Amino acid sequence: MRYEKFKTDLISIHPGLECLEFLAWRVGLDGYRGAHYFQHYRWDLDYIKIVLKNLKKYGMLLHTQGDIHKEYRYKSQEQKWAKFLANTDRDLRQINKSITDNGMRKIIFVNLQRLGLIHRFNKRKELCPVNKKAQYLYAQISQDGINLLEAKNIFDELKILGLAIDTYCGGLVQSILDCINSLEKAYISNIEFTLFASFLGNTWKGQILSVDKITEFIEEFRSLNARQETVVKCVREYCDPKKFNGDKTQKRDFRNWQNETDSIFNTFALISLFEHDENSERLILKGEIKGEVVKFKRSMVVKNEYFKYHEVEKDIQFELHHIVPFYSVNDIDMLKAIDNWQNLLYIDANSHKILSLDKEAKMAIKLDFDGQDVLLDNLLGFVKTLKFNENVRYKSSLQEKMKAYNKKLL
């Protein structure tokens, strides 16, 4: 009964807004928070490099297990681990950071493993899959971690971190980039991400929630102006874990929900395209990189150009997909060139989800055609076929123009 009252109270703030109907429905789900990506921690690229640099020195390093209490004594086989911690902490203090044994294993290593920058192993030295419960005992820097340490410039870092974060987050980075660029005011706030954007790619009313739909929700929410606070207050008061019985699944916890957004924003800020403004609690696009101004076209302009040149109608179950993603760039000029209608395909939401989630499919960036069907090739043996009209909509007379632009980017 308490949920029904919450739902009524929330929607009555403005019954004409679909975003409130969605929000009331979402909060009623056990999986209301969406995917959990990273352990909450404030770090930056320098922090990551210091940890990786020190870990690299030890090869496969055995570490402690469980909680390290104040009277803990390191065993003989844990001496290298203790030295690694001491050396890493000393380096971190040079940038006003620090780390503990528990923090390294339970937060930093968890996040680095999810990004593919380290590998973790069990007591038999068997590789542990990401996000699978395991008794971790060893850690080792991965090849991607080594590549990050050896990156020659900001664009090499962008490739490694951009791909790592976007792959683990199921295409969320590219989607949020598009979302920010589509909004009338080009930013996304902590509360907007928490309530709406964190559910991107999930299903509502039988349809996958696309960037366009989430953008609509956020613009509706912004139209409430000062009454946004009433919405947030209503959700916060309902999502108080003290008011629920049962386990974490049955409870609602607004603070933890927002903390997950903070973790996402801090991690996105590792990529040179984004900046996390902690004062305004907003994720924004950087205005310049390496001293050069980066001016993206407004996303709606690029989208409208696609619809104009390809002469296709908008469909709520389709969305625009970047063939060559932002993390493939080599320089500022290529970054700008990617933001072009000729680097887009209008594909069905399910195909877009596959291309965002699957690691092989994500790098399918070479464009070709089989008749009118579209072929996306990752140059390593994987080819994704998109059936004309069923999975992809474009003007077939533009095939050669699209292939030429794709070749230019590659």
Task: Give a verbal description of the structure.
This protein has 410 residues and is of the alpha+beta class. It is built from 17 helices and 16 strands. It has helices spanning 2-11, 18-27, 45-56, 79-93, 101-114, 143-149, 154-168, 172-182, 190-195, 211-223, 228-238, 254-268, 299-310, 332-338, 349-357, 359-362, 399-409; strands spanning 61-62, 118-121, 138-141, 187-189, 203-204, 207-208, 274-277, 282-285, 288-289, 292-293, 318-322, 344-348, 366-370, 373-377, 383-386, 392-393. It has a 3-stranded antiparallel β-sheet with strand order 1-3-2. A 3-stranded antiparallel β-sheet has the order 4-8-7. Strands 11-12-16 form a 3-stranded antiparallel β-sheet. A hairpin with a 4-residue loop joins strand 7 and strand 8 (282-285). Helix 3 (45-56) runs antiparallel to helix 4 and helix 8 packs across helix 10 (211-223). It is globular, with a radius of gyration of 23 Å. The termini are far apart.
Q: List unreliable stretches of 5+ residues.
A: none
Largest sheet: 3 strands, antiparallel
Integer average pLDDT: 92
- Could you estimate the helical fraction of the residues in percent? 40-55%
Structural class: alpha+beta
The geometry reads as: globular
Radius of gyration, whole Å: 23 Å
Number of helices in the DSSP assignment: 17
Keywords:
410 residues; three-stranded antiparallel sheet; 16 strands; globular
Short description:
The chain has 410 residues and is of the alpha+beta class. The chain is built from 17 helices and 16 strands.
